[in-house]
Amino acid sequence: MFTSLKEIANKCVEEKRSFYEVVLEIDSKQNGLQKEEELKKMTLMWKAMKDAANTYDPELLSSSKLTGGDGGKFESYIKNNNSICGGFLGQVIACALQMSESNACMKRIVASPTAGSCGVLPAVLIPLFRNKIFSEEKIIESLFVAAGIGQVIANRASISGAEGGCQAEIGAASSMAAGTLVYLYNGNSEQICAASGFALQNLLGLVCDPVAGLVEIPCVKRNVIGAVNACSCADMALASIIPKIPADEIIDAMKSIGNKMDSSLKETAQGGMASTPSAKLFEKQIKTAL
Predict the structure, then answer these.
(1) How confident is the model at residue 1 (pLDDT cuts 50, 70, 90)?
(2) In the chain, which end has fewer C-beta atoms inside a 10 angstrom radius, N or C?
(3) Nearest CA to 9 among 182, 208, 254?
């Protein structure tokens, strides 16, 4: 059972194994599967992520007409302009937009950990793969790191916007992505935990306020901040910046915040951005069209 990042990190040190190896072993024992079978399942997950990225359609709009095309606009922008964020982060932003737009347009994605946060993890991995920075085998290993982090958050707190707000979805996805990046760049288990904690603490308190109750606004753009946040937090951890608050305690804090959060800010579309005049107008237009 994955209930503590610290326990996984300690096991890595005690047994002189990587974070990926420890998570794979625990996961295979829990599921009653051979490690080869677990790797095969994760390979299929990675293939689905690649397929979703490669089949993005910039002309496709969601049924509400609120979402679509922005991923294509941003991809064109980074190809034709000197973007503020630069090459790699530009690709991360484009991929996060495209993946989450595909979700809104009912295309096949990988919930990582949820459909609403599906753009964060692929956004940091797809550009690395396309630019041939890491092999497919290494990236598949890194997905087990993400899975271990996500499982700890799910078991210790929540990955549901309806239960914990968007901090439980984008926050968890960003935490997973940050730890995954550290693993790819040869960080140790303590640095993986540090990056995960940094990423989650930066998004504590993030509410879930979908306009018209749809996983589109502000969800799509929040996938971008989750992915960019993951990159910055991975770099901080790799720079040997030591967190003052352990990652497990930050996860506990996230749970406490979610429990105190008003129901209007937990996926009910009754508060936050969903209650703005423009949001109410969009909701009325969508209902009229249906």
Answers:
(1) confident
(2) C
(3) 182
Tokens 């299929």 appear where?
A: 44
Q: Cα(269)–Cα(58) distance, rounded to whole angstroms?
A: 27
- β partners of residue 208: 266
Q: Determine contact, residues 182/240, Cβ cutoff 8 Å.
A: no
Domain carrying residue 85: 5-289
Tell me the pLDDT band of 64, cut-offs 50, 70 and 90.
very high
Per-residue pLDDT at 112 exceeds 90? yes
The total domain count for the chain is 1
Give residues with Cβ within 8 angstroms of 18, minimum separation 6: 12, 141, 183, 189
Beta bridge partners of 266: 208
pLDDT in tens, 142-183: 999 999 999 999 999 999 999 999 999 999 999 999 999 999
60 Cα distance to chain centroid: 23
Rounded to 10°, the helix 170-184/189-201 angle is: 150
Question: What are the structure tokens assigned to 229, written together?
Answer: 């946040």
Q: Terminus-to-terminus CA distance in the chain, angstroms? A: 45
